[in-house]
Each structure stands twice: as C-alpha cells, then as structure tokens.
Amino acid sequence: MRRVEERSRASGQSLDEAVAVVVEDLERAAAALNARTAPLVPGCGVLVAAAGLLVKAEPSSDVIAELFLGLAVLFAIGGFSFLARGLFAYAGRRQVGLSPTVDDVASARDGLVRKHADARRGGWLAGIGLACLILGILFGTHISFTTG
Predict the structure, then answer these.
(1) Any residues with CB less than 8 A from the CB of 16 and at least 6 apart, and which?
(2) How many whole angstroms separate alpha carbon 74 and alpha carbon 25?
(3) 38-92 pLDDT per residue, tens
(4) Per-residue model confidence (pLDDT) at position 91
C-alpha cells in the first residue's frame, strides 16, 4: 500500500490509477522471473535422468560414488519440484479482466515473493544435485596410470 501511495503522490495520479501501475509492475516482474528460471526446469529433468541412469547402470563397489549419485537424484528432484512450482505459481491480480484494487497489490506481491523463493530454492537444490552428480562420477571413475 505504501508503494501505491508514494506512486500516487509522486505522479499526481489517483489511487486507482497508481494501483493499476503497481500491479502491472509486479506482473511484469513475475513474467521476467519466469523467463529467467524456465530453462532450469528441463535442465533439472536431464539431471534427474542422467543421475538415475548412472545409479542403475551398473552396481559399483564404491559406496561413496553410489551415495553421491543417489544424493544427486534426490536434490535434482527437489530442485525440479521447486522450480516447476515457482514457474506455474500465479503472481498477479486476483480477478483477471477487472480493474485492479488495493487488495490486488498485496496478492500480487505475495505471489511474486513466493515465486522468487521457490525459484531460489529450486536453483540451489539443482546446483547441489549437479555437484553431487559430478562428485559421483569422479569418485566412480577409476583412472590408472601405468608406465611402460
């Protein structure tokens, strides 16, 4: 509400006009967040598939490699779920088609905060999953150097 009042005072608009501008700004911010995080969703799917294939491909005698690959699947699925939830969460006016009200500002802001938090959690979990996948591959690969 403070943002609407400040906008109204600064531009000389009525509160209803300022509400419309603020809600549109929040909706544009939600669309920008979707554009930035959308490529991470299929990336997490690929990460889940790759880690799952490596876990099931061949049993390894190295327990540490199996542990990291299992953690990679777990974190990638968690990241995928948060990113998908953030991508499809709605952050805009409560009733589309009607002129926005002061209550829509709070609703749009809460939705945007929820989208941002889900995207951040999903990004971190996907990054941790990728790190676990890399560590699982490195610990599972046996390299021998022979001099001859």
Answers:
(1) 99
(2) 36
(3) 888 898 889 989 888 888 876 667 788 888 988 999 999 999 999 999 989 888 7
(4) 81
Q: Which helix (H) or strand (E) holds 25?
A: helix 15-37
Q: What angle do CA 95, 98, 104 make, to 5 degrees?
A: 55
**Ramachandran class of 12: left when φ > 0, alpha when ψ lies in -120 to 50, beta otherwise:** left
Tell me if residue 148 falls in helix, strand or coil: coil
**How is 33-68 classified by DSSP, letter by letter?**
HHHHHTTHHHHHHHHHHHHHHHHHHS--S-HHHHHH
How far does Cα 131 stand from its chain's mean position?
17
The confidence score (pLDDT) of residue 17 equals: 78
**Cβ contact 105:19 at 8 Å:** yes
Considering the entire predicted model, what is its pTM? Answer: 0.79
Q: Summarize pLDDT for 110-130 with one digit per residue, the tens.
A: 989 999 999 999 999 999 999
